[in-house]
Amino acid sequence: MSDLSLPPVRGIRLASVPARIKDWQRDDLLLMEIDAGASVSATFTQNSFCAAPVIVAREHLSQGAVRALLVNAGNANAATGARGLSDTKACCEAVAEALSIRAEQVLPFSTGVIGEHLPLQRLLDAIPSVAGQLSESGWNRAAKAIMTTDTRPKTVVRTLEIGGEKITIVGIAKGSGMVKPNMATMLAYVATDAHIAQPLLDKMVTDAVNASFNRVSVDGDTSTNDACVLIATGASSSRIETCEDDGYPELMEAITQLHIELAKAVVKDGEGATKFVTVQVEGARSGAEALRVAFEVGESPLVKTALYASDPNWGRLVMAIGNAIPGDLDTDKVNIYLDRVLVVEAGGRAGNYREEQGEQVFSKPEFTILIELGRGACNEHIWTCDFSHEYVTINAEYRT
């Protein structure tokens, strides 16, 4: 939904400008101002080399009363030591001065090349300019400003009524490579004008991320900079304090579905991707086991290159399944379907399967690999993509 015109969210103003963080002319610095009294929650990467902005954002978020987000593209400010932290804090201080708030009320975010220092002066020079252009209608430019290797912005809108009042939810995300979230996401920002109590919002962002971004993988690599932020400005007159309140189920469903749509958009825009594939695992002993099998299949380079070639090499699928459950799998109970085509039955090639059937499925831009393990009652799924020549080119030339 990259061409969608995004409506305002009451209580939020945005602007983006070109700070020339890289040798490009596009917007690459985003500022989001949030009205006082809003609730803000976030999940962050679990990568041990988490970037300086992640460290600072976690610290600032723990102090509450968040009033602004600052996002730069083109430079991750990760693995940059004490200087990276100092540069991040300097940016927060500049935003605080421009908006007349405290530096601790600013959450910083960065995305781009790892191991290089921020062009700090360029950022400091651009912050007063971006602060002077804040507008409720800045969402579309914001979605483009946070992109790196993305080929298109990712945007989603949901509306619903709670207590007779219209509630708006807007989400933007970036991510194309180095994507396998772990209790986090690439970069995603979701805002609603609903009033949601802080403890409930904390639960909502975790649940929504687990149902969406933690079910995707482009290449199996968790970024140093991943973050997902959920903002409830409270501009609505209706109040949602607990899971039992009227309107909560509908609001939670809308927020979750918005996260899922953003997550799918990230996979579909995976670096060089030509296929969008759902890996569905059924009959596992636990949800964790089902996910382990799904990710083993969805992240296998051999499987992903076969997807790109439209080659239904089912031997690679059984190989990956066996790797996920070493020494403890009754292979005679395993069935595999490509969409509705039974390929593997009772651990071997299905008697009625014909190669051209598999080729027809693998040639489609979107399809499902269904794996039946026959060892329990738990089901899970993930979304993944293929590995193409373009993926290698993009990443081989990433810094050149």
The number of E-state strands comes to 18
Shape: globular
What strand order characterises the main sheet?
10-18-13-17-14-15-16
* Text of the CATH class of the largest domain: Alpha Beta
Low-confidence stretches: none
- What's the structural domain tally? 2
Number of helices: 11
Average pLDDT score = 94
* Portion in strands: 25-35%
Task: Describe this structure as you would to a colleague.
- The longest helix has 21 residues.
- The protein folds into 2 domains: 257 residues, 4-Layer Sandwich (L-amino peptidase D-ALA esterase/amidase), CATH 3.60.70; 121 residues, Roll (Ubiquitin-like (UB roll)), CATH 3.10.20.
- Helix 1 crosses helix 2.
- The strands form 4 sheets. The protein has a 7-stranded mixed β-sheet with strand order 10-18-13-17-14-15-16.
- It has 400 residues and is α/β, with parallel strands linked by helices.
- Helix 2 links the parallel strand 4 and strand 5.
- It is built from 11 helices and 18 strands.
Topology readout:
Elements: E1 12-17, E2 29-34, E3 39-44, H1 52-62, E4 68-75, H2 81-99, E5 106-113, H3 120-131, H4 139-145, E6 154-162, E7 165-174, E8 187-192, E9 195-196, H5 198-210, E10 216-217, E11 227-232, E12 239-240, H6 248-268, E13 276-284, H7 287-299, H8 301-308, H9 314-324, E14 335-338, E15 341-345, E16 348-349, H10 355-362, E17 366-372, E18 378-385, H11 389-396
Parallel strand pairs: 4-5, 8-11, 9-12, 10-18, 13-17
Antiparallel strand pairs: 1-2, 2-4, 3-11, 6-7, 7-8, 13-18, 14-15, 14-17, 15-16
